[in-house]
Amino acid sequence: MVRVIGDDGTQIGVMAVSDAIRLAREKGLDLVEVAPQARPPVCRVMDYGRYKYELSKRQRKSKQRAHQVQVKEIKMSPKIGDHDLEVKLRHARDFLEKRDKVKFTVRFRGREIAHIEFGERLLRRAAEELTDVATVELSMRRERNLLSIVLAPKVAK
Fold first, then answer.
1. 142 lies in which domain range?
2. Residue 75 sits in a domain of what CATH number?
3. pLDDT at 97 over 80
4. Cβ atoms 49, 89 nearer than 8 A
5. Degrees, nearest 5: CA angle 71-56-17
C-alpha cells in the first residue's frame, strides 16, 4: 500500500502499488516514490524526465550565482612608500568587495629581517585600514623571510 499524490498536487489516497502504477500509466506519467520512510510510503504521479530536467536546470542556475572564492595575494617590502601602500590597499578593498580573500605578504631581503617590526607595523596598518570590509582570518604568520596575514570579506547581513 502507498499514499498517492496526483500530478496536480492533490492527494488521491492510499491504494495498492499495482493500482497506483496503472493510474499513472493511464495518464501517460510515471509513479515516483518521494517519501520512502513515511508509513505508508508516499508516491507521486509525475513526468520523471521533466522532473530530472528541471532539477538539473535549478542546480545549474544556483551554480551560476555561486561565487568561487579566491585568495588574492598582495606583496610588499618593509620599505614600501605611503602612496604605494595606499594603492595596494585600494586594490585589496576591491578584491574584498568582490568577496575574495586577500593575503598580504611582506618579503624581507638580506639584513631587513633584523627589523621584523616594520613588516608587522605594515600588516597591522593594512588590517586596520580595511576593518570596515574585512576581518582577519589568519593572524600574522612568519615563514623564513616572509610575514603574512589573510583577510576575509565581512559577511553582509
1. 71-153
2. 3.30.110.10
3. yes
4. no
5. 140
